[in-house]
Model the fold of this input.
Amino acid sequence: VIGNPQQAAESASRSTSYEDIGGLRPQLQRIREMIELPLRYPEVFEQLGIDAPKGVLLHGPPGCGKTLIARAIAHETEANFYSISGPEIIHKFYGESEAHLRKIFEEAARKGPSIIFLDEIDAIAPRRENTVGEVEKRVVAQLLALMDGLAKRQQLIVIAATNLPNLLDPALLRPGRFDREIAIPIPDRIGREEILSVHSRGMPLSADVDMRHLAAITHGFVGADLEALCR
Ligand code: ATP
Done:
């Protein structure tokens, strides 16, 4: 969802909750500690004299639930949710990419607790030693400036997602930027069973459907595959 900031802001209420996520318990736990606490209780960080994290990087194969987690956290913390897609910001907003990014950050900062979700961040911030276009360079510079400019007490957290963490410009991973990384793995058997039960919730199933068996024989399926299977 992208366009002007108003369009990019999604009401978190019609999105996902933690119950919609199968598996990924330890990952969710870590992310909640990193994000919920500073968004909900910024005064705790202030009292302790610790800087709350500004950026969290989620990485892992496609369809494993990165977007899902970001949405669920925004919903559960009642934060505004802004979603930006890396490729879109480069191509669709060509010529006004940086301005667009700035607008979203400004709006999110103004509106109180907010999460900005930057999907496919590798598209805008590839390693600079690889051949990079001028637009990408300027967008990375703008993103870095915006993140460095986030005031300590601002209730704004940026969650970025990528399938290709090794291709990211290391400048993005420095302290004060995306300095927390969480790997979102392909689900194991137990995770798959949970995901199957999330997506078959409310489906009338015949007695011979055995989710446990399905989970056991779907090695390598990610959340998106299991959702398709249920459908
Ligand atoms: P991409 O890198 O392609 O953006 P992603 O990791 O962000 O992938 P999502 O968009 O979060 O993947 O997942 C796609 C869909 O697959 C979700 O809408 C959700 O329905 C389902 N899904 C993925 N992982 C899970 C999970 N752990 N539990 C329940 N559903 C899941």
The CA atoms of residues 112 and 155 lie 6 Å apart.
